[in-house]
Every structure is written in C-alpha cells, then in structure tokens.
Amino acid sequence: MPGPAAAVTEDRRVCVTGGNGFIGSWLVRVLLEKGYAVTATIQSGTDAAHLRSLPSGGDTSRLLLREADLLDASALAAAVAGCRAGVFHVASPCTLEDPADPHREIVLPAVQGTLNVLEAARAAGARRVVVTSSISAMVPNPRWARDHPGRPVDEECWTDLDYCKAHKKWYPVSKTMAEKAAWEYAEKHNLDVVTINPSTCLGPLLQPGLNASSAVLQQLLQGSKDTQEYHWLGCVHVWDVAAAQILLLETPNASGRYLCTNGIYQFKDFAETVAKLCPGYNVQSFTEETQPGLVACKDAAKKLIDLGLVFTPIEEAIKDAEASLKAKGFLVQHQLQI
C-alpha cells in the first residue's frame, strides 16, 4: 500500500498530452518550476530530449515520459493513471503541409483523441481537465461581423465548419469538432472541463522543430504576402499560455471557454509592428484591411484578465520568437538593399 509520500506525489501529479510540442514543452517547464510532478505523453518517434534538459526534467520522479498515440486509448489511460491533480490535453495533429487524407491525419485523431483523454481522466479521478483548444475553434467565422456588428469576437464565437470544409481548412475543422466533443462529453459524464483558446502563439522554441504558429512569424519575416484572412485574432506569448493553463487548473470557479490573446487587431497592424521591431527583413506592408469587419479589442481576453493573468507585451513575444528562430536556424536575415 502506498505511503504518505506517494499520496502527496499523486495529489500534485498532472498529465500533459503532447508534452514535447511548442506549448506542451513550456507548460511542462512551468509546471516543474511550480513544484508539480508531470507525466508527459509524446508521440512515438518524436524527440523529447529537450524536456530532460529542463530544470528538474532529469528527475524521473518529477517528470515521466510516456509514448501514447492519441488513438491508443489504453496507452493514454496508463499515462493518465495517478494524475489526480489534473490533466492538460494539449496534443492535436497539426502539419505545415496539406494532409493527403485530412480525416485520417487531422480530424479523427483530434476528436477521438480528445474523447480518449477525457475518458482516461475520468477513470483516473482527475480533478479537472484543461483542454487546449485554439482560436481555430472560434474563427474563421465570416458571419460574425455581419451577425454581431461592432462586437469583438469573444467566447461565444464558433468556427464556421462549412466555410472551412469548402476552403479545405482542416485544422480549424479538427479543433472545432474536438472542442465541441469535449463539451458534450463533459456534460454527459459530469466531468470538470475548461477550455483555453490561444491565438497565434509566439516566443522561444524549446522543441527542436518548427511549429505552425511560429511559422506564421517566420514566413512574414521572409516576405510572405498571406493576410491570414479570417484566421487572425492577434498573438500571445507562449509562457502566458502556459501560465493561463495552470491558472485555469488552479482556479476552482473557472468554467467555460477562455480566449487567450493579447488583444484583437488586424494582421496588417501586426506586420507593421514586426517590421519596426525586426529591421533587415522583407516584411510585407499591407495597405488594406486584412481581416474584413474584425473589431479591435485591447482586453479581448477579459475572462483571463479577471482571473489575474497579466499578458506579456506582444513586442516581447515577437522579439523572443525572432531570436529563437534565428538561433535554431529557421530564419536567415538579409539586409535590404538601399
């Protein structure tokens, strides 16, 4: 029978799915810093060496690494077992390339994986599940501006699945369907679930590979003319997302969805800020509105702000991300010819 030490560890042990991804790695780092014991799931064949180099990451009593595919319910159940303090579901398929089979590669793992994690959390008696959704479950929704003139996008906004399917935007489809499945499961089984919906997430990369949100900045710095059309709702520093996730676990009265962005504004304004902060790149200057009808809002994440979250300035997120992209070889700076 486990002694008192084991009970204390279990009371402070949490699970992080997708623990070696961009957001997951930062979440694991901050959790370890705050004294939690962490079980992190990783996909087979992916690199997790950087997690071991984190402070306390080499202590296997503090950080356990478990291979668990999102569609492997038994592996997820084994990883989540004992994580009574809570579960952070971060893992979700995301690719920089267009998927050959969107349902099999993106949608099914996101939706069924979420249900598998929730089932594992319920079986483990986890206190709460914090599901990392995305702004991709809130936008694109071209009808919002027409249906709610003058109102900023908020937690009541859901992505238009028909629009996304018609435009082959499969990641928003997967995140929207997965979050809706999570809410249906939570209601059916009376499971304590909250969701966080981060905007474009920037900051230092702990993981070795390039992730999709960091690629938005990388491509902008390299001259991309993509306006991010209906997909943009601002950006947020990755450590603010980690702080918000933990805040949502630790705040008993937290409930529902939480938009996590340091303001809503046009992508053209973001590009202008990037051009000023990062000289020497060929940053596109957008002369016209990039997000038609988007209503700007400085305190768009009011629900999180009201819980006490203080956001890092976007300028810091941009500079931290640029420095990290350069250090890891994902960015080559070319001085402009005058």
TrEMBL record:
<dbReference type="InterPro" id="IPR050425">
    <property type="entry name" value="NAD(P)_dehydrat-like"/>
</dbReference>
<feature type="domain" description="NAD-dependent epimerase/dehydratase">
    <location>
        <begin position="14"/>
        <end position="255"/>
    </location>
</feature>
<keyword id="KW-0560">Oxidoreductase</keyword>
<protein>
    <submittedName>
        <fullName>Cinnamoyl-CoA reductase 1</fullName>
    </submittedName>
</protein>
<dbReference type="InterPro" id="IPR001509">
    <property type="entry name" value="Epimerase_deHydtase"/>
</dbReference>
<dbReference type="InterPro" id="IPR036291">
    <property type="entry name" value="NAD(P)-bd_dom_sf"/>
</dbReference>
<dbReference type="GO" id="GO:0016616">
    <property type="term" value="F:oxidoreductase activity, acting on the CH-OH group of donors, NAD or NADP as acceptor"/>
</dbReference>
<dbReference type="Pfam" id="PF01370">
    <property type="entry name" value="Epimerase"/>
</dbReference>
